[in-house]
């Protein structure tokens, strides 16, 4: 079992963007000292209220200079929004400068503001993702290659540098819907999911589908097959943990509303999701969120719930989002991380 942390780093009142990045670096340094294995960085565009991290690959070498052991993952690089040749170059450079510590998390993306901003039709995200992944793998493993696709063409190119990790950095694909679980299972690739987008009841069904499709395609279950991100807070008591996180959960939905409401009227497909976000803000379903999407409690409760998830879902990595909504004082975030490392990790390892 490996343990990771997820960072989204939204804007915060009274702090500059530079200060938020410094805080991110300091928390990752603390995480390394506590024994965490991987720091995962979001990729979000055009929504500072939701995240200030628009280019996680650029942060990898900066973090690697400050810590010596912890691996650094992207959660996730949105392949449809990048040219695959440029992405292959950037990721290989990040792997090289980090001494081979890159975890290459990738995904299709679903937030419409990002596709609108880059002028990419959301309907093309799956096809673009597939072509981009093919090209990136060829760029890393072949001295020269050519490729003919619907969106990208490559004519006898040699892409450099090559990554340190051979044949390439570990690839993990973000999945959140039954369709994406099935598709990635057919490819045989390890997955990354999160309870904020795929609550536990839905996740159980999706994981059953993933296992069945993985086996049907002839792919064996690997030791690193499934990583799961959950909002986690380890408090002195269960009630104190939940009380501490209620403002952050509400703020999370408000941040979501900010980015989903910044779209022209022509983007009508997002309106049902926006209405759901508005309903959650007006009547926060906090008890349901605690049950199906988060693990907030004292150390004993967190251990019990994560052990159950590990055993039921076959988790190889648990990734904690220790400051969902960024409403906790810094000292409380650090205290939760320390409790998790001291009292939870040894019981799950």
Structure report:
The chain is α/β, with parallel strands linked by helices. Helix content is 48%, strand content 16%. The chain has helices at 17-34, 56-64, 84-97, 112-118, 125-141, 178-187, 200-216, 238-260, 271-282, 286-292, 299-313, 330-348; strands at residues 2-7, 38-41, 71-74, 77-78, 102-107, 145-148, 153-157, 171-174, 191-194, 226-234, 295-297, 317-321. The strands form two sheets. Strands 1-2-3-5-8-9-10-12 form an eight-stranded parallel beta barrel, surrounded by seven helices. The longest helix is centred in the last third of the chain and has 23 residues, at 238-260. The protein starts with a strand and ends with a helix. The relative contact order is 0.13. The mean pLDDT is 97.
Which characteristics define this entry?
12 strands; single chain; alpha/beta; 349 residues; globular
